[in-house]
Every structure is written in structure tokens, then in C-alpha cells.
Amino acid sequence: MFRKMRRFKQELNQNEIERILQFNTSGVLALIDNNGYPYSVPLSYVYSKNKIYFHSAKAGNKIDAIKNCKKATFCVVDKDNVQTEKYTTFYKSVIAFGNVEIVDNKDEALSAINGLGEKYYPNHSNELQNEIERFKTAFLIIRFDIEHITGKQAIELL
Questions:
Q1: In a domain, 114, yes or no
Q2: Can you say whether the dihedral through the CA atoms of 133, 65, 40, 2 is positive or negative?
Q3: Distance between CA atoms of residues 52 and 158, nearest Å
């Protein structure tokens, strides 16, 4: 169902793909909106066990699009160094294909909230737990189940 990478020599291995997902802080989620248009939105995320989690408000374009169509892609750019004199860019990026769901399970949602908090606010466990307790009913968690993932780098980085 998914295409093989045409420039397979530039394909990243699974360890590098996981490193990029673990250590980067934002990516772009692409969905199909209710009118059939692509809708992409930059988001903070946490990666865990072949799943990507996002937090969200309970309503809006993103939520409407998720309810419209579960299929999505998520892209993370790890490196983007423009090489002006060479008319190229030294890049590394990852793109995941899969399905998105609004998380209904409270334990899974709380685990994702804690994962997001630990990623973006390390060493603030007391303050973080207070914030989670205060706002846990104000937002929801979205889970991206990865079906296929690839990573690619500039040929110059090989």
C-alpha cells in the first residue's frame, strides 16, 4: 500500500528515525478537512511505542478534520541547513503515515499528558502535576497510530 522510497540509499535506518522522533519538539500533522482540503497544523508531540500523542482543545478545525477522516501524516524535520553556494539543503526528516484517534481511555490520556509534560518541562514534576490536575478537563489527547514510517537525508550527509 505504501510506496518504497525512490532514493533508497538516502533512507534513514529505524534507530535514526526513532532518535528524530524522540528528541525533536515539533512536527506538522496533515489531515483532510470537512471540505476535502488538506489541513496541516504544527504541533508539539511525544513519541512512545510506535504512537505519537498530541494535546488539543476539545473543538476546532483539527478536531473536525479528525472526525471527518482518520487517515493522516505527521512530518518532523530534524535538520535543514541551506547550502547557498551549492544550491541545495542538507536535511534529515521523518514522515509517518497512520490513523488518528481521540483518546477516550483516561489512563492512556493521563500517561500521554505526563509524557508531554516530562518532555517539555523536565525536572518540574511537582509543578507539572499541579498544572495537569488544574487543566486536565480543559483539553484532550489525540493518538496517532503509525502504520508506516520513513526517514530521508540529503545525499551529502551519507
A1: no
A2: positive
A3: 28
The three three-digit cell numbers of residue 139, written as one number: 483539553
Q: How many domains does the chain have?
A: 1
For residue range 18-48, list pLDDT tens digits in order.
Answer: 999 999 999 999 999 999 999 999 999 999 9
Is 2 a member of any domain? no
The values of phi and psi at residue 58, to 5°, are -80, -15
pTM here is 0.91
| 80 neighbors 72 (Cβ within 8 angstroms) | no
Whats the size of the chain, residue-wise? 158
CB atoms within 10 A of CB 17: 23
Q: Residues of the chain whose pLDDT is less than 70?
A: 136
Q: Which helix (H) or strand (E) holds 60?
A: none
Closest to 52 (Cα-Cα) out of 91, 79, 22: 22
Q: Which CATH number does the domain housing residue 38 bear?
A: 2.30.110.10
- Is residue 85 a part of any domain in this protein? yes
